[in-house]
Design goal:
By secondary structure, the protein is an alpha/beta fold. It has a single domain, classed as Spore Coat Polysaccharide Biosynthesis Protein SpsA, Chain A.
Amino acid sequence: MQHSPSISVVIPTLNAAAQLAATLKSIGGGTGDVIISDGGSTDDTCAIASAAGARMVSSEKGRGQQLGTGAAAATGDWLLFLHADTVLPEDWFATASIFAAAPENADRAAVFTFALDDPSPQARRMERLVAWRTRRLGLPYGDQGLLISRDHYGRLGGFSPIPLMEDVDIVRRIGRANLEILASRAVTSAERYRRGGWWGRPIRNICCLGFYFLGVPPRILVRLYR
């Protein structure tokens, strides 16, 4: 009988109370190991996580550092890294389990299809742009999740302890040929686009990405991003 790999979900948080409850609800009972790696929240993030039965770990602030801390505390054969404002589809566990159970995926990783919780044409345009970037450039961001085996994650050296571009850094090490885009859609809050502008936020993201490839340190890029 084939072993069904266990999956741990790791979520970095910092004052994420506004969206965290919906994210945790979407995980459901598919996995019993949900780790919240908190960077020092002062809102109700920790209370919401505890009420949902998630395990809390404290970490130095910074998404790369928090993801690494959460991964170290995880118990699953596979790790699903997820943003606190991203809601998983109903079939996420079945989809992830099928991918994880395939022996040929031991040295590969997967991300979900990107979607936004906004009905506007601007949101559909953004989804198309992200789909192109993911498919053609092999550069999904963290709001698409990242499913990877614990062993392969370890061989890659895990997340770099950087405050920004930690997602780009690790998918470049995974390699485009070893990255699968799952058909299931993970729905992320569009609040940052509504707040930062449907053109302004993407342009800022592209600038950050370009500067990163030019060698600008993430500690400097994070100021531009915010």
